[in-house]
């Protein structure tokens, strides 16, 4: 078995000190986790975005704790060196901080993730401190927080006026004081993200937050262009699998209909006859004959 040595929170924080940009992508299964890890990405986020890109939901709110653990467990099997962060889903940490501790503990114990991510600012700093003091690394998340989509009136850029911007700065400073090891900044003006990044000792990971964050995160399905109808401004498509995958499937369908697939090269062949030809007697010394797939067939 290959020894897993994922990046630690201290190593992630050192990257900020060294001025080395941090890369993070989402993954929801072992296959994508292995591919992302092999490419050298620093962190893998098992995001509750799986509710939208995997389950086909309109938002992340219905995603459950058990579902997050299931997907994080699969990702943990596929990744070797990337630090795995798992989202805590809606209403698993916003209430009682001891219930939050229990839920976060389940994620680390059952999934193999190394840290959890919570959305929110000063309202959850007591919970963040409780988790950190109990040995659970916490990544914060400010700006456009998808679990608050209804309160925000939709997926909208946050911090666009001075008062709202100052609120987010104050939240970021509070999360750092509470012990968060890093902070995702989503959907905020680049100027605000720059101020926050310069004000914090912990790394900032941006998504739709400009170039000055310490790192960047995107949803892997967006990076690969798997949804042609989803083209937000902050996403760059590095492939267009939304066109390539249907093309491959159509080719498969056409070759099957034309009986061009499978070919003999795609088929298995026996090294010796599997059946006694009709009308040929079996030698007297043989008590049985080898049947299909090597299963003995009793005679007479």
Note the topology.
Layout: H1 9-17, E1 22-26, H2 30-38, E2 43-46, H3 50-53, H4 65-78, E3 83-87, H5 97-111, E4 115-119, H6 125-133, E5 138-143, H7 149-152, H8 162-178, E6 182-186, H9 190-199, E7 204-207, E8 215-218, H10 220-223, H11 241-257, E9 288-290, E10 296-298
Parallel strand pairs: 1-2, 1-8, 2-3, 3-4, 4-5, 5-6, 6-7, 7-8
Antiparallel strand pairs: 9-10
Features:
single chain; 300 residues; alpha/beta; TIM Barrel; 2 domains; 8-stranded parallel β-barrel; 37% helix
Structural overview:
This protein has 300 residues and is an alpha/beta fold. The protein has two domains: 230 residues, Phosphoenolpyruvate-binding domains (TIM Barrel), CATH 3.20.20.60; 53 residues, no CATH class. An eight-stranded parallel barrel has the order 1-2-3-4-5-6-7-8, surrounded by seven helices. It is elongated. The protein starts with 8 loop residues before the first helix and ends with a strand.
